[in-house]
Amino acid sequence: MGTLSYRIVVTDCRTQLSPGKADDPAHPLQKGFSMTAIQHVFKRGSVYWWRRRLPIGTGRCDWVRLELSLNTKERDLAKRIASEVTLASDRLLPALKAKMISTEDARRILIEVARSHSDYLDSIAPGRDARKARRSETASAWAIRLYAAQGDNAAVGPIEERELRAAGLDDDLVGDVRTSLEFYRTSGFGRPGRKKLESILKQHGIPLADVHFRQAEAIYMRGMAAALLNTERRWSGVREDDLALVQAALATPVLPEPRAAQQTAGRTLPSSPTSAQRPFDAIPSVLGSGHAIAQTGTIERNPSSFDEDEELDFDEDDENDAREVEVTPGLVEIVTQAAAEKIKTEDWSSGMDKQHIGIAKLFVRFVGHDQPGRMRQADIARFKTLLFKLPKNHGKSPRDHTASIDELVARAQALPPEKVGLSPATLGRYMTQMSNIVNICKHAGYPFGNYEGVAGLRPKKKGDARDERARFSTDEVTTLFGLPVWNGSAGEGKWLDIGEAVFHDAKYWLPLMAIYNGARREENCGLLLSEIDDDGELPCFRMEYNWVRKLKNVQSKRCIPIHPELVRLGFLEYVAALRNSGHQLLFPELRAANAVTPMGDVFDDSWQKMRAAALPNAKEEGKVFHSLRHWCNNEMKQEGVLPEIRKDILGHANADMNEGRYTDPARLQVMAQALSVLPLPTAGLSPHPIRLIEQVVNHEARPSRPRKRDN
After folding, report:
1. What residues contact residue 543 under an 8 Å CB cut-off, 6+ apart?
2. Is a pLDDT exceeding 90 seen at residue 640?
3. 125 — phi, psi (to 5°)?
4. Can you tell me the distance from the alpha carbon of 405 to that of 27, in angstroms, rounded to the nearest whole number?
5. Dist. CA 449–CA 371, nearest whole Å
6. Is the pLDDT reported for residue 270 higher than 90?
7. Checking DSSP bridges between strand 283-286 and strand 291-295, what pairing results, if any?
8. SS3 705
9. Measured at the alpha carbon of residue 654, what is the angle toward residues 678 and 676, in degrees to the nearest 5?
10. Three-state SS across 198-242?
11. Are 521 and 637 within 8 A, CB to CB?
């Protein structure tokens, strides 16, 4: 077939064609076509085409029509090409007729593999170093997961690395995953043999088609990964299945003597209890964080413990019942799926998905299992009590995601009291998100065992709401801009020491932008040069979704005029200098080595030093970088700027029907007039010739942070 290219058209004939009419010359698709004697070939105009109906199942209407242009007007060439295409389609028929492995069969296979591999891991656990084994199993699990999903071309790219870090893996573990994945790819280790897969398919009555072998292999490897990831089962010392077994046994009353006892060899053997009497029915068995499996059935008894002539009075369906399983998705899995959907539909803003998934993971670690049906209101109340005992900064270190709850509490006990326990605002957010998680499970069909709400668990707000966020005064802002950063420093590395050099970078511009456009930190940090409109009558910032950062909500997408004070200090010249240097970002030096690190977090290190140097008491007073945004809003309010105009500038929603739905956002001229009433705490600053820092001039990537290692 050479290097010819083909245009392919696939039609679902169940909805667009009816069998028996596709080859009818009077059919609309045939009008104007000259049929030839070549099988499956017809002419459309002067070009030959190949068309055939191919089955996609066993039903009468389970077929599709496949068309492709042979890209030739020569009959002989079309005949040769068509024969090869027809042969290729014949090879496709077995795969097209084969059904996908059903969801139920896939679940059963996954469960069997996870159980079998969990038993194997349990058998080799004694005597191993717990810490090393936990890390080794975690790395192997993620490597097998990626191998199962991506095949021989599997790799840890930026997307995969982001998922690994979101799951709590540190730099060393991510490197171990890469090494393990390369080993699996090159050695084939971890892939089940064809005989094993054939046995599994036969056991479940699945045809031995190639497509089924490929699916079964992926499911098998997913089961292995699930067992490996369940490190808590082997190394935490807490076995939920053991606890459930004991609890069920203790709660079971003594069974009464059966009315009809069977006499065998002079001994009395009680008949089997019915399903209502069995003390161990529906005892849960936790396999991993992905799924929770509950098995129902009888208590297995060793036949060798009875004489050959003893008769066991088991129910007829006991053997089948013992194999029945019910698969319940885990809490983290339910929340992860719902979070992805809410981000896609824009019901949640960027970051809310990670917050909810993180809380779900912490809650699962706290209660010791991931089955929503076994979770109670009391668990949420106890979880709140735990939050008072954790370090304030828990979750920021990758080790926090692998450490046990007891280890986190022990670390908190060694800290000063002011560094332990969540703030009332953060605690309230945790409780709200726990309520969201409960509702997600409810609407997914997996409700909590009982739930009474979190209203009584939230801290009660005290005082006026306007006092919740501290604001800088104009005098404090003026003091801030008295630092050498804006008036002359000793050099790039000594920007808080008095000198004569003024460098135009994020440290210089971001505080200025915060007070004169009122935007959020991440909105300003993540601006692209293409989002600076400086060629019109009113230059402006365009706050839009881009490849660096998202926006908090729909209302955050807006235009804000560039304040004349920024223009006076040389902001537009700074933008031009970056464009001439070939940059895309407004602040390229904030792009971290790790692509998932927010640019605002990178800038925060510099901000902390500036705030401490200019206003030593600001931290204790709760005045943060966001307080500059509050200063902008408050000063406009004090000058009589209407609330709806301030909301349009700040990116807030107008709840009022008249001001929101039935009006457009304020025009740039209106916003510019509103911003013009702001005080000018920078009036004493002098403009300086634009001077970029060396990292930006040389297009140098930001170095990664030194890796923190355990003592």
Report:
1. 519, 523, 527, 531, 551, 556, 557, 558, 559, 560, 651
2. yes
3. -70, -40
4. 70
5. 9
6. no
7. antiparallel
8. coil
9. 15
10. HHHHHHCCCCCCHHHHHHHHHHHHHHHHHHHHCHHHHHCCCCHHH
11. no
3-state helix, strand, coil in the chain (%, to 5): 50, 10, 45
Architecture of domain 467-697: Orthogonal Bundle (1.10)
> 363-383: b or e for each residue (b if 16 or more CB lie within 10 Å)?
bbbebbbbbbebbebebbeeb
Residue 14 CA: distances (Å) to CA of 17, 60, 100, 167, 561: 6, 10, 19, 44, 56
Percentage of the chain exceeding pLDDT 70: 75
Residues of the chain with CATH 1.10.443.10: 467-697
304-334 b/e with 16+ CB inside 10 Å = b? eeeeeeeeeeeeeebeebeeebebbbbbbbb
Question: How does DSSP assign 261-325, residue by residue?
Answer: PEEETTEEEPPPPPTTT-TTTTEEEE--SSEEEEE--PPP--GGGS-TT------TTHHHHHH-E
Residues 6+ apart with CB under 8 A from 375: 331, 367, 448, 449
Q: What is the CA radius of gyration of the chain?
A: 34
Q: Averaged over 69-93, what is the pLDDT?
A: 81
CA distances from 309 to 262, 265, 266, 306, 313 (A): 12, 8, 12, 8, 13
* Dist CA 280 CA 275 (whole Å): 10
Q: Which amino acid is at 174?
A: V
Q: Which amino acid, 226?
A: A
Q: Please provide the DSSP assignment of 58-113 as one string.
A: SSTT-EEEEEEE-----HHHHHHHHHHHHHHHHHHHHHHHSPPPPHHHHHHHHHHH
Whole-Å CA distances, 606 to 18, 585, 625, 629, 697: 69, 19, 11, 18, 20
| Residue 268, beta-bridge partner list | 263
- Is residue 567 within 8 A of residue 586, CB to CB? The reply is no
The pLDDT of residue 441 is: 92
pLDDT digits (tens, 9 = 90+) for 338-394: 988 988 887 877 678 888 998 998 898 888 888 898 898 989 999 988 888 888 887
pLDDT at residue 467 above 50?
A: no
pLDDT, position 480: 95
Tokens describing residue 564: 């004349």
Which residues, at least 6 apart from 424, have a Cβ–Cβ distance to it below 8 Å? 459, 461
pLDDT at 199 over 90: no
- How far is it, in rounded angstroms, from Cα 367 to Cα 321? 29
- What are the CB-based long-range contacts (under 8 Å, 24+) for 131-137? 133/231, 133/234, 133/235, 134/231, 134/235, 134/402, 135/172, 135/173, 135/176, 135/402, 136/176, 137/228, 137/229, 137/231, 137/234
Provide the angle, in degrees to the nearest 10, between the axes of the packed helices 194-203 and 210-229. Answer: 100
Mean pLDDT throughout 551-560?
Answer: 87
pLDDT digits (tens, 9 = 90+) for 125-178: 787 888 888 888 888 888 888 888 888 888 888 888 888 888 888 888 888 989
Supply the pLDDT for residue 273.
39
Q: What is the mean pLDDT of the chain?
A: 77
Q: Which residue has the higher pLDDT, 3 or 609?
A: 609
User: Residue range 522-537: average pLDDT?
Assistant: 90
> Bigger pLDDT: 623 or 398?
623
